[in-house]
Amino acid sequence: MFTQEFVKSVFDYNSETGIFIWKVRRSQSTKAGSVAGTKDSFGHIQIRIGEKQNNTRRKVCAHQLAWLYFYGEWPKFPIDHINGNPSDNRITNLRYATTSQNNSNARLYTNNSSGIKGVHFNK
Q: N or C terminus: which one in the chain shows less Cβ crowding within 10 Å?
């Protein structure tokens, strides 16, 4: 896994905005000073980090990188976005959470007709 030292050498992280900025040029399209990451289908920011040459390159969620950058350790438990916005990676919006807490913070399913979480239709 990545270390805080490595992440700090590659990124600047603004804890008030939750945005990662590349410190180094990684490719033709990824220049130093550009915002790191892209949104996945769930709304989380994903950042490709590591070296292609030594086979350590992988996609990592920005909220996990923020935790490592700020606290110096890889998260041991699931990280929850307190306000429910998966792309809001401000350190004040991140917390350790149980699966139950994390699920209670999730949005309603699109097929939910009652408008209440946890309620389902039973014929």
A: C
The number of residues in the chain equals: 123
**Any idea what the Cα angle at residue 76 is, between residues 64 and 104, rounded to 5°?**
75
What is the per-residue pLDDT across 39-95, written as a single tens digit (0 to 9) for each?
Answer: 999 899 999 987 766 667 889 999 999 999 999 999 998 999 988 899 999 999 999
DSSP 64-84: HHHHHHHHSS--SS-EEETTS
How far is Cα 86 from Cα 81, in angstroms, rounded to an integer?
A: 6
Fold of 4-104: Homing Intron 3 (I-Ppo) Encoded Endonuclease; Chain A (3.90.75)
- Pseudo-torsion of CA 82, 85, 105, 79, nearest 10°? -60
Tell me if residue 94 falls in helix, strand or coil.
strand
Q: Which residues contact 19 (CB under 8 A, 6 or more apart)?
A: 13, 35, 89
